[in-house]
Amino acid sequence: MLAVMAREIRLLPRRPALAGLVIVLPLIMLLVLGGIFRAGIPTGMAVAVIDLDRSDLSRAVTRMLDAAPELTVTHRASDLSEARALIVSGAVRGAVLMPQNLERDITRGARPEIVTFYDNQHMSAGSLVARGARNAIDTALAGLRLSVRQGQGEAPVQAMVALQPIPMQAHALFNPAFDYVHFLLAALIPTVLQIIAAAATAYAVSLDFGPGRHPRVLMRMAGGILPAMLGKILPYTVIFLLILGLSDVALYGWLAVPLRGSLWLMALGAVLFVLASQMIGALAFVLTRDMGRAASMIALITAPAFGFMGLGFPREAMSTLAQAWGAAIPGTWYVQLRIDQSLRATPLDISSMSVLWLAVIAGVLAALILAQLSRLARQEATP
Amino acid sequence: MSPLATAFRAELAAVLGDKQVRMIVLLALVLYAVIYPLPYRAELLRDVPVVLVDQDGSTASADLARRVDASEAVALTHLAPDMAEATRLVHERRAYGVMLIPDGFERALLRGDQSPVALYADASYFLMYQRVMQGAAVPLRQMGAEVEAGRLIAQGTPRAVATAQVSPANQIEVPLFNPAAGYATYVLPAAFVLILQQTMMMGLALAATRRGPLPGHPVWRLMGRAGAWLAIWAGLLPVYLIVLPVLYGLPILGGPGALMMLGLPFLLAAGFLAQLVAALFRRGEVVQVVLLALGMPFFFLSGFAWPVEAIPAHLNALAQLIPSTAAIDGLVRVMQMGATLPEIAPILWHLWALAAGLGLVVLAVETVSPSRPAAPDRGPTAPSDSPAR
After folding, report:
1. Overall number of domains in chain B
2. What whole-number distance in Å separates Cα of residue B253 and Cα of residue B245?
3. CA–CA separation, B50 vs B80, rounded Å?
4. Which of A264, B74, B156, B370 has its CA 20 to 30 A from that of B189?
5. Following DSSP, what letter does each residue of A169-183 receive, concatenated?
6. Confidence of residue A176 (pLDDT cuts 50, 70, 90)
7. What pTM does this model have?
């Protein structure tokens, strides 16, 4: 087995396509993904103001909108249809309408309406715009309420307290900085690595077990089909683990994502995850014996895997079928383990479940590969 | 037969006649259309489970809990005596938030003091965090307003004045498009465009790595091939962007005319890019793996799910060279938001410029190296030539 491993490593520089797939491609992916999410939280999204009042109050609201970190007031629209056109064309992501006589109606106690329109087709940006506008308008109105109370002779502190009888103390559990880098990147890198590990392993296996190749030489070298297969797979396991480790250094070091849990559990999970991903590729190849068809099979399983991990739309809200499909993919459990152990500091007894699942998936995949390999060996023995 | 027609027919045969390419293009359509949308079928997050820690146990705290439980976004599914037990439930993912009503809640309210309530929401899942905050904030604010108004009335302020003073203006939020905030409605239209591009590029690049030499000037050959792409994908484009969305109940505001106008430069640009990918990586297996791995980065670079405002400028400039970036933006605006072509003219021009630019690069590459060794067992001019054993 060691001989096969040594041969694999020796051959790698002479196979530029394979070396590119297992080393260069993942590194480029790391750089690009890290680059995309480096900024953290989106800021300064363009909004339009439809100010039909042109009063001190409406100007104050506009200033508050512009001061909100999420927003920048870039356009002034004269009516709704103009604002709508700006949103549809993508010039702005939302618009705030302040009606005529806003200030007068407020002083009269007529409770006029301030309307925020936002583009919810681009939901991630749209909900941020809505939140930014809501807070800005709240702040402007709170200033107004405060000055009314102070006008009635209340002390500033007392008036401030009276404005909010039941204040909500909001705490963001596990992710206090509320940084998107944390969970998006922590999930995207394994997703992409899962694709590459599966596909590259299938390709590496195809170079020796494919049609027209001679796996017998390899088997004689290793003394059996199991050590031959392990010898093929393990060198890449090491490479992918190194890449995963590098991404962790970048995440927890350079991007300063918190690491609160057990490093050992994460490392164990990483080994099982990489092995399981590789075995998806190996299984796809030994089943199809054709790299093209194997690649399609791998694509089917690994390419849509991100959605099933539940980072965007949570797993618990999915249908049972979708949950089951996600449970069969190693990345789902590895990403859960990462989030548990890096951000949430989940107690080990809960988090071990993810590792257990990874082990089960890896075990089933290994059994399937061995069954198929021995079937193929029998077929060759009895032509 | 003219070189143009020869190239057209050869490319049709290469895509539709090759088992592997045909499988990528057609099987991908069926399976991606079924598997990819599977997680999002539920569309909406309702009644996200939240733990209630009621240390006050009073009428007022029960009233507040009832109001929060009644909201659409969250449901108070668990009761816990303290924070430790509540946090454990969140760790187990059986709940996504904790509402803590502290001891003395009612007393403080009756005394006229501020009486805070703490809300802990799981921020490792963005959507859950949002729903928990939303579900609790609205009832809390409402109850707070009632309390403030009640106090003013008790001080002798007339009811109408008190209401106006508590909330001087009515804040209304109107989501344009996707008003129900459905997750499938949000993500699927963009994802379908990306899947179309990736599978098209995979098929065409694979076909390109197996192409044999053809007669005629490179311009005619390229035009013939481009014609074949359009002939095939002009049929698939409406399937992905009209039929599938309708099947999944997504809103469609754009018509087939506008779709085709935007689709034409998009398909051309993606086809030309596939030729470059094939020329760069040569081997069919490698091309497939590279395009597979690029799917996710392309999606996030497009500025759809991850707002373009948060993408660093140099990466965003690079992203503009990928057809899907402009195509996702343009197609979603036309099909889901009902934009007219003049309203998105810059995107349309962007795609045409991309198609022309990439086309010229492909032409240059193929003119410089016209005699790339062809795979001997695939080329249409050498059908029965196999390598020596």
Report:
1. 2
2. 11
3. 10
4. B74
5. EEEEES-TT--HHHH
6. low
7. 0.88
Q: Say yes or no for a CB contact (<8 Å) between A123 and B147.
A: no
A173: in domain: no
Instruction: Give the nearest partner residue to B293 out of A29, A110, A170, using CB atoms.
Output: A29
Are B327 and B187 contained in the same domain?
A: yes
By C-alpha distance, which of B126, B47, B55 is closest to B86?
A: B55
Distance CA B191, CA A334 (A): 24
The mean pLDDT value for A57-66 works out to 92
Closest residue of A to B173, CA-based?
A116
> Does A174 fall in a domain?
no
Question: Is B226 domain-assigned?
Answer: yes
DSSP state, residue A383: -
Per DSSP, A69 falls in state T
- 10 Å CB burial of residue A232 (0-12, 13-18, 19+) is buried
Q: From CA B162, how far away is CA B153, in angstroms rounded?
A: 7
**Tens digit of pLDDT for each residue in A272-285?**
999 999 999 999 99
Residues B215 and B133 occupy one common structural domain: no
Question: Which residues in chain B land under pLDDT 50?
Answer: 371-389
Counting beta carbons within 10 angstroms of the beta carbon of residue A66, is it exposed (0 to 12), middle (13 to 18) or buried (19 or more)?
A: middle
Nearest to A183 among B38, B124, B178 (CB): B124
The span from the CA of A236 to the CA of A233, in Å, is 6
Gap between the Cα atoms of B321 and B344, Å rounded: 18
CA atoms of B145 and B139, how far apart (whole Å):
10
Q: How far is B92 from chain A (nearest CA, A)?
A: 6
A311: chain B residues, CB-CB within 8 Å: 125-126
Name the residue in chain B with its Cα closest to that of A36.
B311
> Taking a C-beta distance cutoff of 8 angstroms, is the pair A96, B153 a contact?
no
- Based on the domain organization, do B250 and B202 belong to the same domain? yes
What are the pLDDT digits (tens) for A69-82?
Answer: 889 999 999 999 99
**Phi/psi class of residue A92: alpha, beta or left (left: φ > 0; alpha: ψ in -120 to 50)?**
beta
Query: Is there a contact between B191 and B337 (Cβ–Cβ < 8 Å)?
Result: no
Domain-embedded: residue B55: yes
CA nearest A102 in B: which residue? B169
